[in-house]
C-alpha cells in the first residue's frame, strides 16, 4: 500500500512543475532503486522541459545516456518485462531521433519512454 502511494506521488510529480510536486518527487527519489533513479536523472530534465525544438534536441542529444540507463535497469531487473519495455521504448525514441521523425511521432515515442519508466518503477515497488 505504501509503495503504491509513493508511486502515485512520483507519477503526480512528473506530470507537474509546481514546487510542492518537485519536493514530493525529491522525497520519493530517496526510496527509488538506484538503477531507476539513475535513469530518472537523465529523463527528468528533458521530460520537464518546455515542449519545442530545444526539448527535442536536448532529448535526442541525451539518447546515449538514456540507452545506457535503460540497459542498467534491464541488468538490475533481468526478469522484469517492464524493464525490457523501458529499453524497447528508449530504442524507439532513438529511432525517432535518428530519422528526424515528425513531431507527433517523436512526442509519442518520448511519452512511451516516460510511461515505461513509471511502469518499471511500479513493478520495482511491488
Give a nutshell description of this structure.
The protein has 126 residues and is mainly alpha-helical. It has seven helices and no strands. It is globular.
Can you describe this structure?
- With 126 residues, the chain is mostly helical.
- Helices cover 80% and strands 0% of the residues.
- It has 7 helices and no strands.
- The longest helix is centred in the C-terminal third of the chain and has 22 residues.
- 29% of the residues are buried.
Helix and strand arrangement:
Elements: H1 2-14, H2 19-29, H3 34-47, H4 53-61, H5 63-76, H6 81-98, H7 103-124
Defining key terms:
single chain; mainly alpha; disordered N terminus; 126 residues
Amino acid at each position: 500500500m505504501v509503495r503504491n502511494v509513493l508511486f502515485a506521488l512520483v507519477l503526480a510529480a512528473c506530470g507537474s512543475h509546481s514546487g510542492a510536486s518537485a519536493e514530493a518527487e525529491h522525497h520519493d527519489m530517496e526510496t527509488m532503486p538506484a538503477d531507476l533513479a539513475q535513469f530518472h536523472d537523465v529523463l527528468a530534465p528533458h521530460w520537464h522541459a518546455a515542449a519545442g525544438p530545444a526539448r527535442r534536441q536536448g532529448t535526442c542529444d541525451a539518447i546515449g545516456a538514456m540507452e545506457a540507463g535503460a540497459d542498467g535497469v534491464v541488468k538490475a531487473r533481468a526478469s522484469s518485462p517492464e524493464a525490457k519495455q523501458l529499453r524497447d521504448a528508449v530504442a524507439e525514441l532513438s529511432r525517432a531521433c535518428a530519422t528526424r521523425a515528425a513531431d507527433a511521432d517523436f512526442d509519442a515515442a518520448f511519452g512511451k519512454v516516460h510511461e515505461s519508466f513509471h511502469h518499471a518503477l511500479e513493478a520495482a515497488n511491488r
